[in-house]
Protein: Xaa-Pro aminopeptidase
Amino acid sequence: MLREESVSAELTGPTVFKDERKQAYLNPEGADRPLISPLPATTLDLARRYRLERLRTKMREWDCGALLLYDPVNIRYAFDSSNMSIWTMHNASRYALILADGPAILFEFEGAEHVNDGLPGIDEIRPAKSWIFFTAGNLVEPRLKAWAEELADLIKINGGNKRVAVDKLEPAGAFELRERGFMLLDGQKLAERARSIKSADEIELMRWTIRVCEAGMARMYEASEPGRTEREIWAELHFENARSGGEWLETKLLTAGPRTNPWYQECSDYVVKRGEMISFDTDMIGPYGYCADLSRSWTAGHVAMNAKQKQLYASARDQIEHNLAILKPEMTFEEFNALSWRIPEKYQPYRYTLALHGTGMADEWPGILLHPDFDPEFSGLIEEGMVLNVESLIAEAGSESIKLETQALITARGAERLDTFPWEDI
Structure:
């Protein structure tokens, strides 16, 4: 009770306001209820078929006999199959093999085959042969050989050539496949190039993930009161994502006041104070497995910014708006860099090194560095159908940091923002 009374006392005063625009992003049926996707099943099915065909197209371009996937994000992209994604990121216990002239096979964690019921892209499900030390112990070597023999036989039976793309594989697995005559290619490059161009159905799925993320941001805004800890505010996003069908948060990037600078501190039990800047980056893997990667900054207690906060915020907005405006298809990375917003020297020591990055089921290629860090040898084209995040982090010596970020689809006309959660009025 004492804490509630103190928070209430701090919130009183003529400079306190609540931004009604943000409250509109809460569930209109009641903030105590999760959001339910209105998208028809056909949208998801069309996206599934498109994604698997994107991978097969890249395999044909690379003259690749097979694609072996361990990264759970790539497996989700290929099959829409999700099972213990965080756990399998560090325990290689399920994988997929897509044959260029044969079936697409999921090797599932034993006893979990049923989680894939109804997924149209999977031609066959087999029990995974796990050879990680955690479960294999002194039996790693024989299990590793059995794993390699099964893959080699499947590729041979289905007429695949010896060129196999692999996204993630422990050295011992790579040695075993090479001993059997396979040439290993960079499957992560193949997968990320496939993932970089989104279909219209994928964009609809991503829009829904962003809708859920923005509802979480509205909850965070409501909780951004003096007396709260950074963790309490960050947890509101986690809560909305989980209850509305989302997956996980990739980071814990929410800090307040002096902890915003330098950036990349994780949220803590720091108690926010009235008027301090709260800055965050959502990095949210939401419903349908898509990423909503949005950043905002606002004051604790919903009070007007001070002069320095306004100055920093205005610069961050300038960077976002400038770089959004110049984006267009067929622009080279070097052309974007040459035309991009120039960060003033006083802000450079505290800068965010990325100017743009791709986004799909996670942050993905291309990651285009800010102009002080850009390598002119880094080549590529911005293409129609890409989703790119435009970044800004503005701070100077002794100041707080302003973190802003928006997510945009590249269309024939330029960049179309997918998020609409409002910026601050300054």
Residues 200-223 form the longest helix (24 residues).
